[in-house]
């Protein structure tokens, strides 16, 4: 695997949380996009437009915290246990497919099939048989 990241979901206060983590780690948010700024989600409700769809904060040179607001209608309701994912970036499609298959198989579950995502990269989400939530991706479409 090329990289492992931490992906956190918050109940509507992602921006506040990331500003806190900026002070903890002494780094700055390097990417932030709201639901209202996305071109691939049509008809975003007014209440969700300013919520964070995706943001990224480096913790170290090779470890990044990524985060989003858990907005009703855009994924499962937030609860402790599904509010984080381990995000792995594979070196190629074969490695991504193998990791995704192994993690989601044997009693695990696919929550988003691995495929080219509307926002670009090859991406999928699953829960392994131990209840750990995973994101598997490539930086670009496969």
What structural class is derived from the secondary structure elements? alpha+beta
Instruction: Output the radius of gyration.
Output: 15 Å
Oligomer: single chain
| Tally of strands | 8
Query: What is the number of helices?
Result: 2
Low-confidence stretches: none
Assign a percent range to the helix content.
Answer: 10-25%
What is the mean pLDDT? 89
The coarse overall form would be globular
Would you mind describing this structure in some detail?
The chain has helices spanning 14-25, 93-104, and strands spanning 3-10, 31-34, 52-58, 64-69, 84-89, 109-116, 122-127, 133-137. By secondary structure, the chain is an alpha+beta fold. The protein is built from two helices and eight strands. The radius of gyration is 15 Å and the shape is globular. The two termini are 16 Å apart. Strand 3 (52-58) and strand 4 (64-69) form a beta hairpin. Strands 2-3-4-1-5-8-7-6 form an eight-stranded mixed sheet, with helices on one face.
Question: What features would you highlight for this structure?
Answer:
142 residues; alpha+beta; 2 helices; 8 strands
Write the layout of secondary structure elements.
Elements: E1 3-10, H1 14-25, E2 31-34, E3 52-58, E4 64-69, E5 84-89, H2 93-104, E6 109-116, E7 122-127, E8 133-137
């Amino acid at each position: 695997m090329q990289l492992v990241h931490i992906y956190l979901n918050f109940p509507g206060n992602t921006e506040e949380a990331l500003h806190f983590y900026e002070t903890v780690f002494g780094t700055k948010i390097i990417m932030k996009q709201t639901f209202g700024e996305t071109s691939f989600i049509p008809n975003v409700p007014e209440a969700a437009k300013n919520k964070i769809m995706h943001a990224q904060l480096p913790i170290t040179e090779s470890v990044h915290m990524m985060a989003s607001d858990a907005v009703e209608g855009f994924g499962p309701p937030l609860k402790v246990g599904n509010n984080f994912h381990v995000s792995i970036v594979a070196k190629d499609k074969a490695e991504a497919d193998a990791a995704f298959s192994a993690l989601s198989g044997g009693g695990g579950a696919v929550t988003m099939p691995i495929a080219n995502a509307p926002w670009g990269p090859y991406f999928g989400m699953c829960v392994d048989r131990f209840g750990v939530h995973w994101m598997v991706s490539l930086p670009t479409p496969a």
